[in-house]
């Protein structure tokens, strides 16, 4: 009961924060609790009978975590998880406050947490995860993680705390080398086939693709992607499944989730049960999600680094007529996105966000026609949604993380991840 006062204070702060700013202030209770009771977060996370599973890496964390949770729950496992927006220490503590008892316990068999690589490394010494899943190493969030060696070191620190297994992407050179240095834990691998790589000539953002091809019968191998339809090979058998959104990057997330579910469940693992669950989940907010907004069907596409930007541009439905791009303050250096070939977009109706002119310039250099540059995101969204429905494809909004959050607030949308956490 030693954490009861901190939990009570945190809950009071949470109510006050939500009263003052509906839909916001979710991290403040965690800041307060962590200051009052620094041991609350690790003590609670380490208390689950089935252990702690951490999903971390440069990109793909949110979708992989949601797929993994669905796969575990389909096996009858009670799972505590965090919203995709609560992957740093104060956000994790705030998420725990929603369900923790005054004794510092949460009902559930296992905890599955998406964890920011930087914050995860800071608190890793106090955690004892049973399984750690590593997605990839990329130059991501350039203002924080501008150096791949630094990111790899953070992930290595988190992985070193695993007590049972580390699940890693065998197509990423940094992770391959990280796995070779691990001792005392099992290393489970996943990857993509040469055929899938050939379908993505611009690459998947790995440091060196196809470096460590999985031997036959080892790990989980993605063998085919066609829109939302995909296939993988597991133990010499081929399994077909459906993705929540189109694109090879979502298929890689699914393979990551499947390999992690297999590692966490052991003999209880059933690939058919897991893939059926993965196929049935809705997209994580903004990741290829299609929603009805003001009577219009809109697809939201989040881009967080050059690799995800390129993959999302390449996977858009050909001939999409109405596209809006919004890049916000999270992209502090606009040259960050210049390696992306945006020419496939062809025609963009609106460029918006605080970096509206910068992204419009890049589009122009790539030969993309931009009808209007409107830095005020609210004004741009209202104008875009007021347009009649397109004759072909869906209204599509491509945004950076900052613009995603502002879009959600302006349109009054609630993340389904927040609802299910």
Automatic annotation (TrEMBL):
Q: Does the keyword DNA damage apply?
A: no
Gene (UniProt): murT
Q: Describe the subunit structure.
A: Forms a heterodimer with GatD.
Tell me, what does this protein do in biology?
The lipid II isoglutaminyl synthase complex catalyzes the formation of alpha-D-isoglutamine in the cell wall lipid II stem peptide. The MurT subunit catalyzes the ATP-dependent amidation of D-glutamate residue of lipid II, converting it to an isoglutamine residue.
Q: State the family it belongs to.
A: Belongs to the MurCDEF family. MurT subfamily.
- Keywords annotated in UniProt: ATP-binding, Cell shape, Cell wall biogenesis/degradation, Ligase, Metal-binding, Nucleotide-binding, Peptidoglycan synthesis
Q: What is its EC number?
A: 6.3.5.13
Originating species:
Leifsonia kafniensis
Annotated pathway, please? Cell wall biogenesis; peptidoglycan biosynthesis
Its taxonomic placement starts with: Bacteria, Bacillati, Actinomycetota, Actinomycetes, Micrococcales
> What's the protein called, per UniProt?
Lipid II isoglutaminyl synthase (glutamine-hydrolyzing) subunit MurT
Top EC category? ligase
């Amino acid at each position: 009961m030693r954490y009861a006062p901190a939990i009570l204070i945190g809950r009071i702060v949470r109510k006050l924060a939500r009263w003052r700013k509906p839909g916001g202030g979710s991290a403040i209770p965690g800041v307060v609790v962590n200051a009052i009771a620094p041991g609350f977060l690790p003590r609670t996370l380490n208390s689950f009978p089935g252990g702690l599973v951490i999903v971390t890496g440069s990109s793909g964390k949110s979708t992989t975590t949601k797929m993994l949770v669905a796969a575990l729950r389909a096996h009858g496992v009670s799972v505590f998880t965090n919203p995709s927006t609560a992957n740093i220490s104060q956000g994790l503590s705030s998420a725990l406050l929603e369900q923790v008892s005054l004794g510092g316990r949460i009902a559930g068999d296992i905890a599955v947490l998406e964890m920011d690589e930087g914050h995860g490394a800071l608190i890793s010494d106090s955690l004892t995860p049973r399984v750690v899943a590593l997605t990839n190493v990329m130059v991501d969030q350039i203002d924080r993680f501008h150096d791949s060696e630094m990111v790899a070191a953070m992930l290595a620190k988190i992985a070193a705390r695993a007590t049972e297994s580390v699940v890693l992407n065998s197509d990423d050179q940094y992770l391959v080398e990280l796995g070779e240095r691990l001792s005392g834990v099992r290393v489970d691998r996943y990857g993509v086939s040469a055929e899938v790589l050939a379908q993505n000539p611009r690459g998947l953002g790995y440091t060196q693709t196809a470096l460590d091809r999985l031997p036959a019968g080892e790990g989980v191998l993605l063998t085919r992607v066609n829109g939302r339809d995909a296939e993988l090979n597991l133990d010499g058998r081929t399994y077909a499944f459906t993705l929540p959104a189109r694109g090879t990057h979502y298929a890689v997330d699914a393979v990551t989730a499947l390999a992690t579910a297999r590692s966490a469940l052991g003999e209880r693992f059933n690939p058919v049960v897991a893939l059926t669950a993965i196929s049935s989940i809705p997209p994580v907010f903004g990741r290829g999600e299609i929603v009805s907004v003001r009577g219009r069907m809109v697809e939201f596409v989040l881009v967080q680094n050059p690799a995800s930007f390129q993959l999302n541009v390449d996977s858009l439905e050909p001939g999409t007529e109405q596209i809006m791009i919004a890049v916000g303050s999270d992209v502090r250096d606009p040259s960050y996105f210049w390696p992306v070939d945006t020419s496939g977009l062809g025609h963009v109706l609106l460029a918006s966000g605080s970096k509206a002119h910068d992204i419009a310039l890049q589009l122009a250099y790539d030969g993309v026609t931009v009808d209007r540059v409107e830095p005020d995101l609210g004004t741009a969204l209202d104008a875009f949604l007021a347009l009649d429905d397109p004759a072909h494809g869906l209204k599509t909004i491509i945004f950076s993380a900052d613009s995603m959050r502002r879009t959600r607030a302006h349109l009054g949308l609630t993340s389904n991840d927040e609802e299910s956490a």
